[in-house]
Design brief:
By secondary structure, the chain is mainly β. The protein is built from 2 helices and 49 strands.
Length: 603
């Protein structure tokens, strides 16, 4: 028994000794750990979580923003061997410091990450006037974010609860070429700046046209306050300068003589910044003059045609004789020639020039003109008998042309136009009312009108001669007055109006004689219209006025008065009866005398 116990004690001692020897030979196990890299950045930053000294097969879970409303699991997995490594992107959260919790079967590990704001743009290069879109993350929750272009505010937008804003747009303001910074600012400060590079840009207007056209060049994004040279196909057209913001104000130049096709317009500043645009030259012609009657000599100038090409010129789609007879372009597509406008009616006609490849057109207005030899106005009127001449150009060739007074239609002249549509019509103004009239000249296709003002000055008032005031007159009264003359420059005979009334007022119903259009300054009442005898207490009244060929009437003269005494006039059978009675009386008287004489002799 004792030996057995002894042996058990010895065995335990041996085992203990062996353990004491073995323990120093076994190294101590290292502690497990987790690291996070980087520790600061913007939303979207790639963050790597690494674990070491873990037991193979251990599970792990990484949570970002642990313990907040923004918490989310960003990685899970199982340890392979003794380490693990996972990368995740920082989710959309407002700016701040967030806990990264790595939970494992070996325990929980805590790390920290600082989220900073950032902005991004849709472009990295651009031009003044272009639209840029800005997005932002990592800003203060629900804060108003101010957007800056360099140091100038271009607008603002409110971030959501995650500190995010998007689709903020602005137009690149006038600025010089080169890099410019865009940033956002919340209540806690600015975001890092994003750079956008601005290049010079020009615009031209128009972008196509003809030689001789004016082109306007404008631009932005050049160096500030620098001279700028504008060239056309490397030939300097003009120079100007930018302002402090690199803006090139509208500058014009004239397209030089050149062949048709595309040409380069360039603007280059003294700092070698430049931009180009393409201007397309097309064939064109100009006419001088652009209007006129048949026979007018027209100069045609062409540019932008093919070099050293023969050009054909047509008028109204018909070839014309030109000077020179053969028209040829220069090495720059230029030509000039003349032609006479063919005979034809007035209207707009197309002039065409073509080198068989390039064609250009321009309009020529064939005009009709008519002129009158004298014009009249209210202060310088015309008169009856005035001689006038109307000359017409460009009317219908070989056509009857009629000149008419349109107010009271009357034909004044009829002529025939010649082969060129030209005519001359001579006429005199007929008797017409004073005032405004219209003279029309027409070939039934073309009509022209003229205003004619007839004089309205009345002739003088005639003076009464016979019968004298208060004079006794015969029943077949003879009236006489002083003749008067027309006062118009083209004097014409006047006529007279005569009235005789039983009252001095010449009221309706009292006028016994009303004669108009008398051509003589005297009038005798016909026996058929003789006046009845009156006394001095009931005289007759008479008056006269003069009227010229323009129907301008003078005033009535002062009223004259006269009376008609008793008169007996034997006419007809009464006269014959009296003559018979006298013959009978003389017969018996002779008989009686004869008897007395014979009786005396008897006794």
């Amino acid at each position: 028994m004792k030996h057995s116990r002894f042996f058990r004690i010895m065995a335990a001692a041996v085992v203990l000794a062996l353990l004491m020897v073995a323990i120093p030979a076994t190294p101590a196990l290292a502690a497990a750990g987790v690291t996070v890299s980087p520790g600061t950045g913007t939303v979207g930053t790639a963050v790597t979580v690494s674990g070491t000294e873990f037991t193979s097969g251990n599970s792990y879970q990484v949570t970002f923003a642990y313990g907040t409303t923004f918490a989310q699991v960003v990685a899970t997995g199982v340890v392979s061997l003794t380490t693990f490594s996972r990368t995740f992107s920082v989710p959309s959260v407002p700016r701040g410091t967030y806990t990264i919790r790595t939970a494992t079967t070996a325990g929980d590990f805590t790390s920290y990450f600082d989220v900073t704001p950032s902005v991004t743009t849709n472009v990295s290069t651009g031009h003044v006037g272009e639209t840029v879109t800005v997005d932002g993350t990592g800003f203060k929750t629900s804060d108003t974010i101010t957007i800056y272009y360099d140091s100038s505010t271009v607008g603002s937008k409110t971030a959501n609860i995650y500190g995010v804003f998007d689709n903020f747009t602005f137009t690149v303001p006038a600025c010089t070429e080169g890099g410019h910074d865009i940033s956002g600012r919340d209540d806690l400060g600015y975001s890092p700046e994003v750079n956008i590079s601005i290049s010079p840009q020009i615009t031209i207007s128009p972008t196509s046209g003809a030689v001789g056209d004016t082109v306007t060049v404008s631009g932005n994004g050049f160096a500030g306050s620098k001279s700028v040279t504008i060239s056309f196909d490397a030939v300097t057209m003009t120079t100007t300068s930018t302002n402090a913001s690199g803006t090139l104000s509208a500058t014009t130049f004239t397209v030089p003589s050149t062949a048709r096709g595309s040409h380069i317009v360039k603007a280059r500043d003294a700092g070698t910044n430049e931009d180009t645009e393409t201007f397309t030259v097309s064939a064109s012609i100009t006419l001088n003059p652009t209007s006129g009657p048949s026979g007018t000599t027209v100069t045609v100038t062409g540019n932008g045609f093919g070099a050293s090409k023969t050009v054909t010129i047509k008028y109204n789609n018909l070839g014309v004789v030109t000077n020179p007879a053969t028209v040829t372009t220069s090495s720059t597509g230029y030509f000039t020639a003349t032609f006479a406008v063919p005979v034809g009616s007035a209207g707009t006609y197309v002039v065409q020039a073509s080198d068989a490849t390039n064609t250009a057109t321009a309009n020529f207005v064939s005009t009709t003109s008519a002129t009158i030899s004298q014009t009249t106005t209210t202060t310088a009127p015309g008169n009856v008998g005035m001689p006038l001449t109307i000359t017409g150009v460009g009317f219908t060739p070989n056509h009857t042309v009629t000149v008419t007074c349109a107010t009271t239609p009357v034909t004044l002249a009829t002529v025939t136009s010649d082969a060129s549509g030209n005519f001359t019509a001579n006429f005199t103004i007929p008797p017409s009312l004073g005032g405004a009239h219209v003279i029309t000249v027409s070939d039934t296709v073309i009509t022209k009108t003229f205003d004619f003002i007839m004089e309205s000055s009345p002739p003088p008032i005639p003076a009464l001669l016979l019968p004298l005031v208060g004079e006794k007159a015969k029943s077949e009264t003879v009236f006489d007055w002083d003749p008067v003359d027309d006062v118009s420059p083209q004097s014409t005979p006047v006529t007279y109006d005569l009235q005789v009334s039983t009252t001095a007022s010449f009221t309706t119903g009292t006028i016994l004689i009303d004669e108009t259009g008398l051509t003589d300054s005297a009038y005798t009442i016909p026996s058929a219209d003789k006046l009845e005898s009156t006394g001095k207490d009931a005289p007759y009244y008479w008056r006269v006025r003069a009227v010229d060929a323009a129907s301008n009437a003078s005033g009535w003269n002062e009223t004259g008065s006269f009376y008609v005494g008793f008169s007996f006039k034997i006419t007809g059978w009464v006269m014959y009866a009296i003559m018979a009675a006298i013959a009978v009386v003389f017969f018996f008287l002779g008989l009686w005398i004869g008897r007395r004489g014979g009786g005396g002799g008897y006794y």
